[in-house]
Specification:
By secondary structure, the protein is an alpha/beta fold. Helices cover 40% and strands 27% of the residues. It has a single domain, classed as HUPs (Rossmann fold). It has helices at 17-27, 45-48, 53-71, 86-96, 118-126; strands at 2-8, 28-40, 78-83, 101-105, 130-134. Bound molecules: adenosine-5'-diphosphate.
Length: 135
């Protein structure tokens, strides 16, 4: 059904990426392209200047590793690690890369009071393409 699918993920144990990958496979055309994306929050410059340079490089490397490890469960997927504001970045990336479907989790498991977390809400509201929300 879709040819260019973006799967933004959080890299922590609380978020179940398998459900997102299953949805991606199910909604994909046979020749579809998958991109698994993680957006790291930018560290404010007044904090960054206090940190040893290694600390920033290490956190980037660790995120890259965790992202690749997770995305390996979605065969054929490429990965993209970015720094910025998650909601804005996801929407902009989708617009600039002709993404036709974004697969996003609705919120953290357990926080069922909210229908949508803040990042998911922003993506649903602003994306120009289809958005599949995992409940
Ligand atoms: P919650 O605050 O309950 O975790 P969010 O809206 O932040 O809800 O997260 C819902 C989903 O949005 C995540 O499971 C993930 O798919 C996506 N998402 C949130 N933050 C990021 C991020 N920094 N990078 C990539 N995807 C993200």
């Amino acid at each position: 059904m879709y040819k260019n699918i973006l799967v933004p993920i959080l890299l922590d144990d609380e978020h179940d990426t398998q459900a997102s990958y299953l949805a991606a496979r199910t909604l994909a055309d046979a020749d579809a392209k998958f991109t698994v994306l993680h957006v790291m929050e930018a560290i404010p410059s007044f904090v960054a200047t206090q940190l040893p340079k290694d600390a920033l490089d290490n956190s980037h490397d660790q995120a890259e590793k965790a992202l690749k490890q997770s995305a390996a469960a979605l065969e054929g997927a490429s990965t993209h690690l970015a720094v910025g504001h998650a909601g804005r970045f996801i929407v902009d990336y989708a617009g600039e890369n002709r993404v036709d479907c974004i697969i996003i989790a609705s919120h953290r498991p357990g926080i069922e009071d909210y229908f949508l977390g803040s990042t998911a809400a922003r993506v649903v509201r602003h994306a120009q393409c289809a958005v599949h929300v995992i409940r």
